[in-house]
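Objective 1.3, modelling of assemblies. Example input:
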Amino acid sequence: MKIKSLEELQKIKEKALKEISGRETKKRGRIVVGMGTCGISAGAKDTLRALADELEKQSIDDIAVIQSGCMGLCEVEPTVEVQIGSEEPAIYGHVNEEQARRIVREHVMKGKILSDILVKRGKV
Amino acid sequence: MRTIADHVLDIAQNSVNAQATHVKIKFVEDREKIVIKIRDNGCGMDEEKLSKIFDPFFTTHKEVRRVGLGLPFLKQNAELTGGYVHVSSTPKIGTILEATLFKTIDCQPIGDLAGAFATLVTSSTDVIWEIERCLEKRCYEFSSKALDGVDLSSPKVIKMIFEYFKSMELSL
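Predicted structure (tokens):
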């Protein structure tokens, strides 16, 4: 969908507000993208976009996508933290667009930890 | 930073970290130069802090992890083109950054400006973003007041905002 004016965006806002008011807004999990100077330099903006795009493509709207500052893992940026329910967070590193889509399809949808890009488990 | 859009994203986040609730970004481009102006109502800086902001690794955020390279990188890249970065600030009032980059062979590509704006707008519900973008005489304006009450952590909303800015950039 191409949005060409502020009026169109306003309509989308009204539609989104209606949708939200009509259902439970509690999220079942969250994905945090490190958006510090190091993350931005490594392409975290593209990671964020790919995550939102893949989640939307898979009709997943109960996962919050949040931005944070530097997670202190500058050498493995872009970094992404995934926490579903009460499980221990998984921190992934070098998350490019392709890996971001994998995280959605495998971790978020199937609960599978991607060990090849896993940096650590637990809070940073 | 590979692109000017990355600089805008990084520098504008300084405003969020300075507890700004209102950030105005003006990005004006013509054939010869790019002028970026970012004005916030954050905590501002005194003269001592202001004198150090271009020192590599200087940061006022010791309690959180901050690299302190954003402004030195922007200054270096602007000066490579013959341009400059000027910052003025008043404690408890806010900060104004103005950068001019000339479109010489040393000028970085502008990059994904739409993505930078979308990332900023979706980064915090506590900040009102006002964006003015001009290419020659064609301009568009955006205010995040239009998104008041919207869940900015929703993937659907994030995607829509990315698409909105992409469309606006294409319309220039």
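The mean pLDDT of chain B is 90.
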